[in-house]
């Protein structure tokens, strides 16, 4: 029997088995872990590739966008060096937030995402950048190409979510987020994360 190429007899691991994107670092694949409708923090299980429940969200805030990661990326030494206040990368795949006008309620889907910028999040001394992207061919957001074209209120919502989603009353806040950066720096972060992946796992 002739199978189409590429063909996977078994489900590929979302982090290691999918391609980074059709035109990295500008157009990426985003593997979605969390939708704006989720009140539970889901996260990829690095060993099996399935989603696991990380924790119920303590606060009432919901993620303002689709949220996941970019396959075959790793936040290691190179990513850490791009954030002066950070001591290292966080050792995870690069996070990505994808804006879409139409509600997408399902997770564990793969999207094509146009990179427009990012948020430099420092989580306890670790670089944990949040790339911001637009769903390719989106009828409302589709022509956006840089963070300056995204309404400031959307950036505020993303910033507020990431500043509060780990908040526990009585515990010290360990998260800080600098000013949003544009597409050029976001692509630099993505290239660094792709190189860190090669260093950590091979090509």
Annotation keywords:
203 residues; alpha+beta; five-stranded mixed beta barrel
Structure description:
- The chain has one domain (27-201): Inorganic pyrophosphatase (Inorganic Pyrophosphatase, Alpha-Beta Complex), CATH 3.90.80.
- It has a five-stranded mixed beta barrel. A four-stranded mixed sheet has the order 5-9-8-11. Strands 2-3 form a two-stranded antiparallel sheet.
- With 203 residues, it is of the alpha+beta class.
- The chain is globular and about 60 Å long.
- It has helices spanning 77-81, 152-164, 183-201, and strands spanning 27-34, 40-44, 51-56, 66-69, 88-89, 95-99, 110-119, 121-123, 126-127, 130-135, 175-177, 181-182.
- The mean pLDDT is 92.
